[in-house]
Amino acid sequence: MEHFKLNKKAQVHMTETIAVMFIFFILLSLGIIFYAKYSQGQARIAEYKQFGQKAMDMTLQAVFLPELICTNAEAETGSNCIDLQKLQYLNSVKGLSVEEYFSLFSYSYIWVEQLSPNEIEYTIYNNTKPEYHEVIPSFFVVTLKDYLGTGSGLSYRYGVLHVEVYR
Amino acid sequence: MMPLRPFPSKKAQVEVQFNWIYVLIAGAVILAFFGSLVIFIKGQAEDRRAVETLNALNSIFVGAGISEKTKNFIETPEVELVFACQDGISSFNLKQGEFPPKNPAAPIFSPAEIKSKQLAAWSLPYKFPFKIMDILMLSSAKDAGGIKYYIVGESPLKEELKKNLEVQTPLSGEFWPGFDVSFLSDVSEAVDENNYAVRFIFLAGPSFSLPVWISSLPSEKVTGLSIANKEISFLSLKNNQLTANSVIPLPSIAEENDPLIYAAIFADSEEAYLCQMQKVFNKMSKIILIYESKTTALKDFYQKKSAINPLDNNYQICGNLLIKITEGLAVMKSNANSCVNKLSGSACQTLLENALAVKEDNTNLMQQSCAQLY
Fold first, then answer.
1. How far away is chain B from the Cα of A46, in angstroms, using its nearest Cα?
2. Is there a contact between B134 and B123 (Cβ–Cβ < 8 Å)?
3. Could you report the per-residue pLDDT of B267-319, keeping only the tens digit for each?
4. Of A150, B132, B311, B335, which has the fewest Cβ atoms less than 10 A away?
């Protein structure tokens, strides 16, 4: 009889142990699922941050591109100033070559909107992505240096440099 | 009298022992599981840090590259950077791990490997005669246990190098530690400072006998450069002696702070230097094309004005100067394409003359009150 009682006690004890382990593994699985979801969110945030940084790098490179910037003979080049004659040439050839400048500008659309004295748009680089997830636009006010001017020589116009980076 | 308890059966004895073995195995499995999870997460965190470092460095190099004549001081985690260049495409990456390399647009003249927690970067515009691009020089900062530069000999260039490469404490702006340079009259004065790599820059002809302690360094970690006027020669260590490779004339018209000389100081091999210069020359061809179109636009303007106002001589003078520049730029473009691979040869010499001619013509445009090319 006592032997029978001991056996039953042992079985109950074993069942308790199994139940504890079962709950433990359920909690562990919940923990792993939670961590996976958290990591996914973190990865998305990191991806977005990296895309933002890349967009900023491209914008800076566009603003300071030697193919566009104003010059002043041997003096230092001006900032936020675009040579209008160079810009007009690039627009006439539909912008910079995508093959040659893809490493610099990737999928983006860079153009200048002249605001004064009249509104004209000049394309600098056009490589928009057909199906994109998002686009980050940046704007810079720039002066357009016209070496030919209007009668009296050198003159300045102003416009906005648009840089739209696609992902 | 109490009844005798029966002895524990053999089955019970085995059961107890089995219980303990079961506990040990289960415990070991759980421990192994958590251990591998920790190692996996640690590996992921290290990879993430490495990728973030690479991305941050890429952005810093972009910023440093576009702000001309600026010096930057970069603090990095303890990583080893490797720089490579092939067929005009440069890249940099971390030495450990397999990450996609970064391909910077601007040429970076640096040693092939940099092992330092602090980097010093300096960018200079390369003008030929108009601005082609900014050139970025990069190496380990002073007192960061990186590469040591010994500048040997006397020449007019020495004072300029002292002013540019040593530590600077500007009145305003950020402190710049400079590169780890020592100026010597003779190569025998070079003292071992436990650097993992050294580079000798000879201003008055190369010296072939090196200090004895050099033999303790691997041969690829000892390099040299000889600078004479506008010609350079890369030196490599063979049998404990520095031997010169070919002489490379520099396609540069800068009278001071010549970016191509500084680029040669920091690029530790001729192959790396020429590869980065390919990038510069490819860009040069594109820039010349744009200036050609600008010259055509200016020339057409003055020719029209001259036709309308035949009595005004100035328009004709401007038009003629611009015709000369147009021809000069066409020859420059052709020579730039021929000069791209070796930097030596008649095409490169002619290119230098073309650039000087365009510079002179641009000055003439200014003197004649014409619209300037640049």
1. 9
2. yes
3. 989 999 999 999 999 899 999 999 999 999 999 999 999 999 888 888 999 99
4. B311
